[in-house]
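agent> Task received from the user: take the single chain below, predict its 3D structure, and emit structure tokens. No templates, no multimer pairing.
agent> Plan: (1) validate residues, (2) run structure prediction, (3) serialize to tokens, (4) report one or two observations.
agent> Step 1 OK, no nonstandard residues flagged.
tool_call: predict_structure(input=
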Amino acid sequence: MAIEHISDTARWVAMYRAMETGRPDAIFRDPFARRLAGDRGAEIVRQMPRGVSMAWAMIVRTAVFDEIILDVVKDSHADMVVNLAAGLDTRAWRLPLPAGLQWVDVDLPDVLEYKSGVLRAERPVCRYEALPADLTADDARATLFARLGTAAARVLIVTEGLLVYLAPDQVGALARALASVRSMRWWLTDLGSPLLLRFMTRTWGRAVAAGNAPFRFGPAEGPDFFRPFGWRETIFRPTADEARRLRRQMRGIWFWNALARLAPKRRREQFRRMSAFLLLERDEPDATALPGRS
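)
tool_result: status=success, residues=294
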């Protein structure tokens, strides 16, 4: 099977970044992605059903996350970015971040060791730290967040491609734990609906389940899922809208657009909000909001 372990998903996504970097009109460039993906990443993309044709979604996600991270750091003066389940992300090396920003990658030890080995000769653009942790272990997570919470005043949490692999109660526990640390002000994540979860399960379900990485989280309530845990939505960017803006829409989108015009308005909106990029903010009166896009 294409996915043998959940850490393989990081090589999968790194290969998509490498594919985009190789384009003359690339919307971002990651000069480290091909090395990190390795032959295993290329093999995964070849083996996954619709592995190449669905690259656009991961590429759009990377570009939009880049934009929002830079906006929060610049406009809201975040002094730390904590990248949970960071995988083979290279933003601490490739984005124009302030030299004084603290960037923390958190993931399983073998993932971080592999990345540090590949990037050993490269220098991060900001202050960088890699912390091994199992985010599903309550005690380890609490210790980690307590430590990070006292190391900075305005923290942006990033969970790119993580939540879909967690059960709803695990996401709720993570949301509650993050909200309990006052310095953790913003949370950037991707979010799918039940409709997306069904599509992903039909397309890639068997492949990821073989690596103990089934798709599990796609709340019917959308961003409102996070409100009881102390988070409110400030930015909601549907993937379809961002793909159109960035000119990275899926092949044959004209056909689906034609079908959509025949569908009721409510159904069209369901498809539009099937997948999105979400910036959450602590639900506090003194929180600094960023302008959203709906």
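agent> Step 4: summary for the user.
Residues 62-204+216-282 form a domain with the Rossmann fold fold (CATH 3.40.50.150).
agent> Done.
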